Every structure is written in structure tokens, then in C-alpha cells.
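Sorry, any thoughts here?
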Amino acid sequence: MFNNVFKIVYFVLFMLAFVVRKVFTASNRKREFIVEKKSPWDVLLLTFDGIGMLIPLVYVFGSGLDFADYPMPQWVGWAGVVLFMDAILLLYLSHAHLGKNWSPVLGIQKDHTLVTSGIYAYIRHPMYAAHLLWAIAQMLMLHNWIAGFSFIAVMIPHYLIRVGKEEQMMIDRFGEEYRAYMKTTGRVVPKFK
């Protein structure tokens, strides 16, 4: 437990990310959906994401996964810290700029608007980008084959399965306006002009 600095820093940053998410989840609880696509796959993918995020806490607070440790230079861990801080900032900005349009489930709300400003002026899915950065940071900070790689192992399949559905739902709702928006932005990485 807490036998290296990166475990401590990871836990602190994890808690910060958790607070960011909870603040926005609490503010968007009572939303009315006109389209909601919550499938068993969605529930399963979100469950696996949660497990991928929680396995590192087992590693941080115990020694049961220490058998899967591997050595890495300290600068790699510090690079992970910087990436995790970037991920938290991106997570915050994506929630703040999306505002009342965000929901944890795949859906279009009654008063849904297309957000193309703020961070959304550069990328269409900054929350996925934030989670991808988080997953990479986790690998860099936690030098453990299980705890380090647990989130990326579930996050990438979730992204690949869900993002296409989200984009189709937005095309169905906003039509050509969304198609035009897609031409000027990248999915998780800004499009360079």
C-alpha cells in the first residue's frame, strides 16, 4: 500500500477525476430523453470501464497485484502524472462546455443542442479523449501489468463500439449541421488544417 510515490499521486488524481465526474453527474440527473439507446452492451461496457478504473485502487491499497510489477524509469511515471492532469482538465472542459447536453447514457435529450464551441470546436469526443489520456497515464504511472493496463484494455473496445452509435445518433438529430461539424473536427484528436 502506497509503497511508491506514483501510487499516492495516482490515488489523488483519481479522486480529483471522480469529483469532476460526480459534480456534473449530479447536476444532470433529471433529464428527459427523446432518444435513449441504453442496451445491455452499454451497461456491460460501462461496467467493464468501472472495473478497469477500480483495479488500480486494489493495487494502490494492497499488495496482491505486486507480483505483476515491472521496472520503469521514474521519468515515465512523471510523464504519466502530466498526462493524467491533462486528462482531468479535458474531462472538466468537456463536461463544462457540454453543460446540460451531457448524460451518462447514450441519448438525445428533449432540449438537446449541438455544441461546437469550447473544446468541442477542436474535437467531437473530448470525454473519450480524456479517458484515453487517463488510460495511457495509468499505464505510465502504475508499472504493473494488471493495474497499469486494466483501463486501456476496456476503454478502447468501449470507444470503438460506442462512438459510431453516438455519431449516428447526432446525424439523425442534427443532420447536415452535424455532418459539416464532422468535417472540421477530429474525433479525439484535433484535425490539423
The helical segments are 5-27, 40-61, 74-98, 126-141, 150-174, 176-184.
